[in-house]
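Thread: Newbie trying to understand structure tokens

Hi all, I'm a second-year student working on a class project, and my supervisor (Dr. K.) asked me to get a predicted structure for one chain before our next meeting. I've only ever worked with sequences, so writing a 3D structure as a token string is new to me. If someone could post the tokens and maybe explain what I'm looking at, I'd be very grateful. Here's the chain:
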Amino acid sequence: MMWYLIFYFSSCWAAYNDGSTSTLLNLEGTIPIFYRDNQYNIPVELWIVETYPRAPPVCFVRPTADMMVKPGHPHVTSDGFVKIPYTVDWQPDFTLLELVAHMCSIFGNIPPVFRRPMTSRPMPHQDRLDGSSTSVSSGHSSTGGYFQRGSQAQSRTPQPSPYYIPQFQTQSRQGLSSSEGAYDTNLLFGSSAQSLEGGSSVSGPELYALGGMSNGMRPEDRAAALKVEVTRKIQMQLEKNFKRVRDDIDLQFEYEVQLTQSRENVERGLQSLRFLRDDLTRAQGILDAQDESISVWLEENENKDALDPDAILVEGDDLSKQYVDYLNWRLQQDEETNLTLCLSRMIMTLAESYSIDDALYYMDRALSNDEIELSVFLKEVRKLSRKQFMCLALVQKIHAKQQELTSSSYYRSPRD
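---
Reply by user tm_fold:
Sure, no problem. This is what the structure looks like when written as tokens:
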């Protein structure tokens, strides 16, 4: 199915929330949607921001006087601001045509507006034809910062009329209703065709206002809604602030615990260092006293004659001399006897070790000739190996003893 889009553009200046102003391109028109096999035309307004195409256009749904925004719509706020995934995930290569197509698809599933009940329709009023500016407050933080359009927005009381005649727009929209078709007034939106047709007293195209005035709510209802919205935002901000403060307090408590533990560790370390200092001081005093006593002893015995250890034992008579000679002779005999015993024991031990080698050799040949079982061979080899190890260890000990006896007899001074 082919369908055509007709948008009227104009150059309008808009004011930011911080008071700064700029001139933006404004596109007004309708987009077709298909709801329950019927076509409806939704009035929308697109604002091309200064950072476009890096930033997405700001889109609004502009219901007519006998229409209102559907409460709780997932993609349209109460003031008509449109927020769809296409604008949230906006990329510089996205186009306005694709944006309109996404809006048509989403609004076809969930229409953003519906017919206003007859009891809540606003009273007719005199349209403003002086061409002065009016308020276009969005009332939503996600509209890119555009708060109002016109210099007299804050000084003029909002009117329930959803449209006015700007002095800078001279084109006519009389062909819009004939090319797109009037609103279906019986199925969804009610009688709303006069807002897009040229038969009214308005001589130029209508510009749907931004903000809470677009849905024609009563001032007290609008004030209550704004109060609820502001209260909710304040509560959310307070919750965020409380959470941040609570997290900071918890973090500071953790820091305090860590600092307390660190202080205790430092105090324990200082106490242990004090104890160590006292111990070192006492040890230094003891060492100084011992050093002093050793120095005194060295001074006293430094010039004395050296004593011969062999001359210490001096016999006093003939019997003592005979006894000393006997001891020396017996010592010499014992040394010779010990050397003889060590030599004979080493010979026997070496002979036993060599006999074990021969036994291992013949057992190996018997195993090669299948004259002995493997299990018996291994068992006997373990026994002989253990016995040979003990023999070799004994040989080493005997050799060490021989060296000791030899050295002692060599350095011993003979006595006459």
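A couple of things are worth pointing out once you decode it. The beta strands are 7-16, 21-35, 38-48, 58-61, 67-69, 113-115, 146-148, 163-164, 207-208. The longest strand covers residues 21-35. Feel free to ask follow-ups in this thread.
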